[in-house]
Design goal:
Layout: E1 2-5, H1 14-27, E2 32-37, E3 42-45, H2 51-54, H3 57-62, E4 66-69, E5 77-79, E6 83-91, H4 95-112, E7 118-119, E8 125-127, E9 130-140, E10 143-151, H5 156-162, H6 172-179, H7 193-204, E11 207-210, H8 213-227
Parallel strand pairs: 1-2, 1-11, 3-4
Antiparallel strand pairs: 2-6, 3-5, 6-10, 7-8, 8-9, 9-10
Helix pairs in contact: 1-8, 4-7
Length: 229
Amino acid sequence: MKYIALPTNEPRRLSFYLAMEEYVARNLNEPDCFFMWQVEPSVIYGRNQVVENEVNLAYCREHGIQVYHRKSGGGCVYADMDNLMLSMITDGDNVGFTFNRFVTMVQLVLHKMGVEATSTTHNDIMIGDKKVCGTAFYQLPGRSIVHSTMLYDTNMEHMLNAITPGPEKLEKKGIQSVRQRITFLKDHTTLSLDEIKTMIRQTLCDGEVMLTNQQIKDIEQIESLKYNN
């Protein structure tokens, strides 16, 4: 699997990485591609969701949290620089096989770290009975795109308030309720987030494709046309 790398580390909006997935799927002649990314506080909601029903837009505006719509299904997700976003683009259109392959890959890395992880029928990755990673999927002709949010850490106040319409003041009980359902990877390993990124790449990828400046411009055009409106 080839790692798709960017020539610079400049911060990008979440919409850029969605456009990057689509560009890679349509234009790179590589059967298996993978990349990781991180974003400033953002909310991303699924293909079949209505933003007003899923996102506390007033809270997001007040706290500078960007909101984006993705082409894959699944639920609403809050992401920030303490999360790790994973993207795989691969040949084929077998949904079940692609999901299973991706989840197995993530579990392999976690097991290598000494973390006992399992998966569910909904393609979530669990540590014990708590969710640490969720996945979503969509297809383009002959290509499959699967992406995931790995919870290394996060801003709990933003996570709860940004994707749950309701009182903006976070109650202690609300935090406890969410923490009963999710877990942070930092609580199960001594590795830093950067060390985990290195391990993921070394475990899953056997080469690199560095995008050119022209390809970056092409991705930015897709971003402008399809993901920033």
